[in-house]
Amino acid sequence: MVIVKHCPNCGNEITDEGEFCTECGYNLLDNSPRIIRATKDEKGFFDNLVEKTSFPVMVFAFVIFGIFLFVGALFWSSFMSNGSLDLLTYLMLTVVFAVFFGGIFVGYKGCVDKSYVMPNFALYSGSIYAVVLCGIGLIFTFLMGILSALSSAFSSMSSSSPYGSSYQPTTPNYVPNMDLSGVFKIILFILLIPVAAYFGVYLGYILKENI
Predict the structure, then answer these.
(1) Where are the beta strands (DSSP E) in the chain?
(2) DSSP letter string over 190-211?
(3) Of 71, 83, 136, 198, which shows the fewest CB atoms inside 10 Å?
(4) Whole-prediction pTM value?
């Protein structure tokens, strides 16, 4: 097992006997007893997630996400108004648009080097999924509550009708057709969120390195 040294401040690998860390400038001689000795593969995924991500960056990323959600809604609504987009495509493009620009902020402000890209992408995309699923869950719960209330109201009305509660009007059998295009768009939407998040974070890192 190869033993290597790491800077106690930023975790950068120390390859020489210099006085300062080449990555963050930390004084290694004054704090030499604190130098961490570990193998390169000792830290797990969640350790990197904690060490290489920032809660304030994620909070501001969601502020950027909200701003571009509004901007994207204005932009894509112009295409929907002239019939170029349907409602589901409009929602998908608006959310993916906002995810991408929020990811750029995460990459620009949260990635010190390339090793920070994946932890920040994982936390950002996971947070986006949590927000989207919670939003869908709240909408579903609200709609189910309304439908249950309406069903209860209509059942009480039918029980008081002159035909009696046993009366059931005859209706022709109807078998709804499954909209495969809608199912495909939902699957595409689920897949596009991490893609947009990754390219946004990576582009933000590239911009930070070159600007």
Answers:
(1) 4-6, 13-14, 36-38
(2) HHHHHHHHHHHHHHHHHHHHH-
(3) 83
(4) 0.63
Q: What are phi and psi of 176, to 5 degrees?
A: -70, 145
Cα gap 24→10, rounded to integer Å: 7
Residue 44's φ and ψ, nearest 5 degrees, are: -90, -175
Longest alpha-carbon distance in the chain: 95
pLDDT 10s digits, 96-128: 999 999 999 999 999 988 889 999 999 999 998
With beta carbons less than 8 A apart as the criterion, state whether 93 and 193 touch.
no
Distance, in Å, from the CA atom of 28 to the CA atom of 206, rounded to the nearest integer, reads: 29
Q: What angle do CA 183, 187, 193 make, to 5 degrees?
A: 145
Pairing of strands 36-38, 13-14: unpaired
Give the pLDDT of residue 168: 52
- C-alpha 121/C-alpha 77 separation (Å) is 28
Question: Rounded to the nearest 5 degrees, what angle is found at the Cα of 174, between the Cα atoms of 172 and 178?
Answer: 175
Give yes or no for a contact between 85 and 77, defined as CB atoms under 8 angstroms apart: no
**CA dihedral (21, 24, 30, 34) positive or negative:** negative
